[in-house]
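Standup, Tuesday
Yesterday: got the pipeline producing structure tokens again.
Today: sanity-check two examples.
Blockers: none.

Example 1:
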Amino acid sequence: MAGSMPPVTVADVEAAADLLGDVVRCTPLEPSRVLSAVVGGEVQLKCENLQRAGSFKIRGAYARMARLGPAERARGVVAASAGNHAQGVALAAQLLGVSARVFMPAGTALPKIQATRGYGAQVTFAGHTVDEAIAAAEEYAAAEGAVLIHPFDHHEVIAGQGTVGLEILRQCPRVRTVLVATGGGGLLAGIATVMAGEGRRVIGVQAEGAAAYPPCLAAGKPSRLETMATMADGIAVGRPGDLPFEIIQRLGAEVVTVSEELISRALLLLFERAKLVVEPAGAVSVAALLGARAHLEPPVVAVLSGGNIDPLLMMRVIGHGMAAAGRYLELRLRLPDRPGSLAAFLAVLAATDANVLEIQHVRAAVGTAIGEAEVVVRLETQGPHHREQVFAGLVSAGYAPQAS
């Protein structure tokens, strides 16, 4: 393999960039002071969440479809996706005047379905995972003659995604480390292709609950995960693509994993500090920064691969992120069951500047003595240090709180 021609070259990526010149946005590279402090050097965010259709996927979809001949375009295209590739294919098809059908897993977020339909594609639901939807799209392509636009396992798609890397090199020529969200591997393979050489480090990031690449790279061949569980549905792919896997293996790109807690913290940080709305899959690069155990040589660029998040999921994730960041505190304690006890306790809490979100006062709780009541209080704090201050303030006032 070492002496063979690589499946995708820098020239292929540059040719894709020429095709995409008037189609995609050159998304901004935004500096992050808070993440720079974490790394101890310059960190910038590549904001593909601000791309057309909300993610980098329009790049690969258009690069692939623009090269279809008249007969292929007449047959239409078919794709499978949990959302971002669907929207990229639908928009590319609309721009090129091609009919498109997209297979989506059951349970796909409603905004992604509506956006895909809004670009003119027909949506069909199949299976419960991206892999099952891809299988349905492949069957449809074989039966109907439609051209399959694979989300990651095609050299033209990989070349299109690699244009993100070309932009990063123009915007930050000194870049030493690039962190890239990774599902099937098309984006990582494309960026690794243009970043190869000169000592740059390209690191793919997967959610712990859907991390197919680490065991496959260790085994030297792609294989399928049996189960997946992550909020980052955009990268929940059970089997690496053959072409991306070959490129990633050939170029020695690393792949690391991040926990759901780190993903939640990353989303909250991006929302609060960078004022950026990013989906869970798009935030895993920042999650890797927050949890980095190895030195990341700056300048570091973290690719925010998409921003198509369901508002309902956003509310849950923000709550999860607040808890993970130490912004919530739940306490359980016992008070004398007499008038004024609860008011006195709340007065002490008020002095700590903690905000009461919810409180329960139970006079007949199991294990409480006669003349006692159990109180469970949920608080909003300003972070871990403030949590400790609240706890210490209650103890110094004579209470015996227990964190739930």
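Example 2:
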Amino acid sequence: MKHHRAWGAYALLYAASFGLVPAAQAQNAWPAKPVRVIVPYAAGGSADTLGRVITRHLSDVFKQPFVIENRGGAGGLIGSQMVARADPDGYTLVVSGVGSHVVAPIQAPEKPFDPINDFTHIALLGGPPTVLVVNPSLPVKDEKGFVAYVKTQPKGVSWGSPGQYASLIGEAYRKATALDLVQILYKGANPAVADVVGNQVPSAFVTLTTAAGNLRSGRLRPLAVSSTQRIADFPDVPTFKELGYPQLTGITWFSLSGPAHMPPALVARLNAEVRQALQSPEGKAELVKQNMETFDWDSATFTKYVKYEI
């Protein structure tokens, strides 16, 4: 019985997308059971936190549980692949992002999925920018001083990299400045931050969310941030764009996606509700708390952005 009910809801939504039945009737048929939302990372990170903010809202609005399942591994590829293979009936979604759908697929020796053709990209959630930080003992006060300092070092200056998007920002900075910067790879942002705080490594490119506590305490010094504009909590930190590096603008974004060929009527409704969740007091508070940026985009605009990022 449950199978027939779920299939009936999907058929109605699919028909609605071609104008065969009223869209409102199809939308009201879904969801008829709980919706799985795969987070392809461990619990507690930015993807998990944002996922839980929107699932609480979606559960309230649609009167069915939206249940988070953490399926980490391979930089987000394992959990994402599960969703790429799922039925496009709206009952299996994924908290996608730049790591799992841009960086990891490009780096993978064998392509586990096509990040565009195997998914329906529903809505942008947001994410933290990358920040260039140094140990306060370094004799530099700003990015210009950092450039001058690196040029005086015969062996160059090393920088901690947690991999994925922050690593790309760091490499793009090295290329733009032609500085002798040596990348030190870490398995995550927290160990990289810890080594800069401990003065084992003089600098790092990490997410602002990870670095924020140490920036407030003065154990790290921020030099530049990759956001589109200055961050309210750190108004004295200039953007890379202000400093003459407009190409170093971007966030470690997360989003909501589903399998390819989801009914357009369902996608539009989910997109509207996710955007509403992010504009709610809880959503705004969480974005501010984690120093995240977001953009109020429809599904088509967001999908274009994913293609641009790739």
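Quick observation on example 2: Residues 1-14, 23-27 have pLDDT under 50 and may be disordered. The domain at 130-225 is CATH 3.40.190.10 (D-Maltodextrin-Binding Protein; domain 2).
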